[in-house]
Design goal:
Layout: E1 11-17, E2 21-26, H1 27-39, E3 44-47, H2 51-58, E4 68-73, E5 76-86, H3 91-110, E6 113-125
């Protein structure tokens, strides 16, 4: 007997075993994985670019998927990131590092094949 559970947003099935059940991952989870990976890259100040989001983040309220959009199709995913970087860093170098880190993290944690990681530099942080 299968019990339905409430889904939040779009989901995709990672694995299905008729004897045990299935594993589904929300697209929001994929976005969080991508966002966390991107923020670990040296030179990345934050994700997003919206002044309201930045103000909310300063209050200690974190939205770990802000500035991240994922498009899941069967077993592939494309990721779009809005990134704020530190002034003085090389945009091409930081962008390449973000792409590598996000691709590796999403593929390792979800089993999906990342087809593209698109980056939009939304802002430059000139402080500290």
């Amino acid at each position: 007997m299968t019990k339905e559970f409430e889904d939040r947003g779009a989901n995709y099935t990672v694995s299905e075993n008729n004897n045990i059940g299935e594993v589904k991952i929300s697209d929001e989870v994929v976005a969080i994985v991508a966002g966390l990976a991107a923020t670990e890259v040296e030179g990345v100040v934050s994700l997003g670019g919206n002044i309201v989001n930045e103000s909310v983040a300063k209050l200690g309220i974190k939205n770990l998927s802000k500035g991240v959009k994922v498009y899941v199709n069967e077993q592939t995913v494309s990721v779009n990131l809005n990134v704020n970087i530190k002034y003085g860093t090389s945009i091409p170098a930081v962008s390449e590092n973000i792409q590598d880190k996000v691709k590796t993290a999403v593929e390792t944690m979800t089993g999906l094949d990342v087809t593209e990681v698109n980056i939009k530099i939304s802002g430059i942080n000139i402080e500290g």
